[in-house]
Amino acid sequence: MDFRSSEQPDGPQGADAVAVRGPRSEDVLPETATTAVKVVIVGGFGVGKTTFVGSVSEIRPLTTEETMTQAGVGVDDISGVDGKTSTTVAMDFGRISINEELVLYLFGTPGQERFWFLWRGLFEGALGAVVLVDTRRLEVSFDVLGRLEERGVPFVVAVNSFPDAPGHGVEELRAALDLPPTVPIVPCDARDRASSRDILMTLMRYLQTLATTQEAS
Fold first, then answer.
1. Would you call 189 exposed, middle or buried from its count of C-beta atoms within 10 A (0-12, 13-18, 19+)?
2. Cα dihedral sign for 176, 40, 151, 154?
3. What is the pTM of this model?
């Protein structure tokens, strides 16, 4: 039996009248793009990773946010972010063109430790990482930084701005996070596209410096 869709207009041209939707123009990869780089956006729970990817992505970001439930009670540490009602359970994905040839694919990782088993796949093939930190809860960044160092993934640290976050100097933060002097530590407002883009540019410059140093040695 043939059923007519309620969305299909009546008349002989019904099927033809339904426009075939393709990708939006802003979602199409520029024809001039010659190099694509994978970058991961990491950090502890509630530091702003989803916000970062969403603010800077030139395409509609893919998110896997779910409402927080009782299942996380006693498992997830929500101290300092008690008002948070949703969380990333797999990844966030976005894309940004740095210039006409270079495109960055952004993969935001889940922050809760119970989802860290997904990190291995997300880090595969990544050229570098942005570590978002919240100065109100620096301790949630320690394990994240340790995992990056173990994997040998170069990274920059972006200090996300929160209204009630205490201010610290760069060297004070470097000491607290036990970072070498070469790792960039820069302020960031994950809600602001220009600020988030500047962080990615800092990462690209840092990666270029590392590559140049390795070639010279």
1. buried
2. negative
3. 0.74
